[in-house]
Amino acid sequence: MVEIFYKQLIPEFKDEVYTLFLQHIEQTAARSGSRKDYQRVCAIIRNLKKAGGQKQVSEIKQKLFNKYANRPAFRDELSKV
């Protein structure tokens, strides 16, 4: 849902939107198991970036890189963001 309505919510609820994005990214990453799933996670990260969350994008990418160090396909997709 956050991906759909973030544009309308950003002006008034920027911090809350960023928090929702980060939770959504982490939950989606935890359920991912294929390159297509990893690409979906990266698409969500790109939406966060469009919403103005540059700092949050850097932090979540680093967190996912460390957490999923044994998934080279995921790391490859993250490096493209």
Provide a compact summary of the structure.
This protein is mainly alpha-helical and 81 residues long.
Taken together, the total number of domains comes to 1
What oligomeric state do these chains adopt? single chain
Question: What's the mean pLDDT score?
Answer: 93
Which spans of ≥5 residues are poorly predicted at pLDDT below 50?
Answer: none
What is the CA–CA distance across the termini? 21 Å
Helices and strands, in N-to-C order? HHHH
Anisotropy-based shape: elongated
DSSP helix fraction: over 70%
Number of strands: 0
Structural class: mainly alpha
Question: How much strand content do the residues show?
Answer: under 5%
Main pleated-sheet profile: none
Overall radius of gyration: 12 Å
Number of helices, where a helix is a run of at least 4 consecutive DSSP H or I residues: 4
What does this structure look like?
With 81 residues, the chain is mainly alpha-helical. The chain has one domain (13-79). The chain is 84% helix and 0% strand. It is built from four helices and no strands. α1 (2-31) runs antiparallel to α2 and α2 packs antiparallel against α3 (54-67). The two termini are 21 Å apart. The mean pLDDT is 93.
Give descriptors for this structure.
81 residues, mainly alpha, 84% helix, 0% strand
Q: Which helices and strands appear, and what pairs or packs with what?
A:
Blueprint lengths: L1 H30 L3 H16 L3 H14 L4 H8 L2
Helix pairs in contact: 1-2, 2-3, 2-4
